[in-house]
Design goal:
The protein folds into 3 domains: 7-96, Helix Hairpins; 105-265, Heat Shock Protein 90 (2-Layer Sandwich); 289-403, Response regulator (Rossmann fold, 3-Layer(aba) Sandwich), CATH 3.40.50.2300. The radius of gyration is 26 Å and the shape is elongated. It contains 11 helices and 13 strands. With 411 residues, the chain is of the alpha/beta class. The strands form 3 sheets. Strands 2-4-6-8-7-5 form a 6-stranded mixed β-sheet. The protein has a 5-stranded parallel β-sheet with strand order 10-9-11-12-13, with helices on both faces. The N and C termini lie far apart (90 Å).
């Protein structure tokens, strides 16, 4: 204590330091809790997608076997549609888990935010004002346009819902900011976030504000103050910002409003990257010998039936070791479909083992956790679960055509 420091000042400084430490500990606990829930969410989604592959595939096959436009075929189609809706829920769960981006592209955060504002206007409560400060300059980031759009719209609509009816405004602003280590500490978002230049999307409302208890829980999955069935909205925002390598900041004062900031790592230089295009070339008949490696029995069975219906001869095995042994015993397969999350040997290692053994068959990797397994250039063919008949046929046909092993034949 210096001569100029009074005991009261020292006591106040100690209290402030203790409060700062408690706040840092609270933030860290919140981050750790959300990360644990994210791991759980990703695992659940993976298992669900395996089950949905069976439901979707069998409903497709059933629809083909029933008389066209009959009541039975319509019921089969409805089963397929429900399975697709369930797969969309799985995608939202995986988004909460913060899975890595599948196909990141260069985006202008300013353009995406303008689109989000335009779309959100139609859903704003009557009397809500939007005040924009987006600037004329591009803010390039690397990301998924649909997810960033979802995040921005979610934040704008949540801000609008906190306003008293017919009063107040939601302020939307963009700017580049320099972020240091201190600002990143304890924030929700990616563990890989590093100090540097970020594109900051800020949404501030003049609403009722959020109390501390709600603030601590608002990003938990299925926690909501808006009635049943409205969960996963803000928790999905956490997953989106995680997968983009960014962080979230939320500040709120009861009676004064809330400020939500999403910080995305900013790209250097100017934009313009061409979007990858998916070839669309479904085939009716394949006439190929296919080895199918998947530990989920329902996936093996439905995929085998679909491929056999398409004219293929199919051999199924449940483990990576069995897959390698099957090829060693019979190297005449034209294509190999391999699940990436096998219990004994990872799917990618199985694919690499096949290539080392001289296998020149078309190799397709599949997973119910798309994006969590980066694909090397040597294995570009990937089929996301859940898949139905058309997606499976198309993917195998394209892999066969690319390998030159078998030319797909139309019936």
């Amino acid at each position: 204590m210096t001569p100029e420091t009074t005991p009261e000042e020292l006591a106040k400084a100690l209290r402030n330091r203790e409060a700062a430490i408690r706040e840092s500990e609270r933030r860290l606990q919140q981050v750790q809790k959300l990360e644990s829930l994210g791991v759980l969410a990703g695992g659940i989604a993976h298992d669900f997608n395996n089950l949905l592959t069976g439901i979707l595939g069998y409903s497709d096959l059933l629809g083909r076997m029933l008389p066209e436009k009959s009541e039975s075929s319509e019921l089969a189609r409805e089963i397929g549609l429900l399975a697709e809706r369930a797969s969309q829920l799985c995608e939202r769960i995986r988004t909460y888990g913060g899975r890595p981006l599948e196909r990141p592209t260069e985006l202008d955060l300013s353009a995406v935010t303008r689109e989000a504002v335009s779309l959100a206007r139609a859903s704003l409560p009557k009397g809500t004002h939007l005040e924009l400060d987006l600037g004329p300059v591009e803010l390039p980031i690397l990301g998924n346009e649909v997810e960033v759009l979802q995040l921005a719209m979610n934040a704008i609509l949540n801000g609008a819902e906190s306003l008293d009816e017919g009063t107040g405004a939601v302020h939307v602003s963009l700017r580049p900011v320099e972020v240091d280590e201190q600002r990143l500490t304890g924030r929700l978002g990616s563990r890989d976030a590093r100090p540097g230049t970020y594109a900051e999307l800020a949404i501030r409302d003049d609403g009722r504000g959020i109390d501390r208890e709600t603030l601590d829980r608002m990003f938990d999955p299925f926690f909501t103050t808006k009635g049943p069935g409205r969960g996963l909205g803000l928790s999905a925002v956490v997953g989106i910002i995680r997968s983009h390598g960014g962080v979230l900041e939320v500040e709120s004062t009861v009676g004064k409003g809330t400020t939500f900031r999403a910080l995305f790592p900013k790209l250097c230089g100017e934009l313009r990257a061409e979007n990858d295009l998916e070839p669309q070339n479904p085939c009716e008949k394949l006439y190929a010998r296919v080895l199918l490696v998947d530990d989920e029995a329902s996936v093996r069975e439905v995929a085998a039936r679909i491929l056999e219906f398409a004219g293929c001869e199919v051999r199924t095995v449940a483990t990576g070791g069995e897959g390698l042994a099957a090829y060693a015993a019979d190297p005449s397969f034209d294509a190999v479909l391999i699940d990436m999350a096998l219990p004994d040997v990872g799917g990618l290692k199985v694919a690499e083992g096949l290539r080392k053994a001289g296998c020149d068959a078309a190799i397709v990797l599949t997973s119910g956790s798309a994006g969590e397994h980066p694909l090397p250039p040597a294995f570009p063919h990937f089929l996301a679960k859940p898949f139905g008949e058309i997606a499976l046929r198309r993917c195998i046909a394209e892999a066969l055509a690319a390998s030159g092993r078998v030319a797909p034949l139309r019936s």
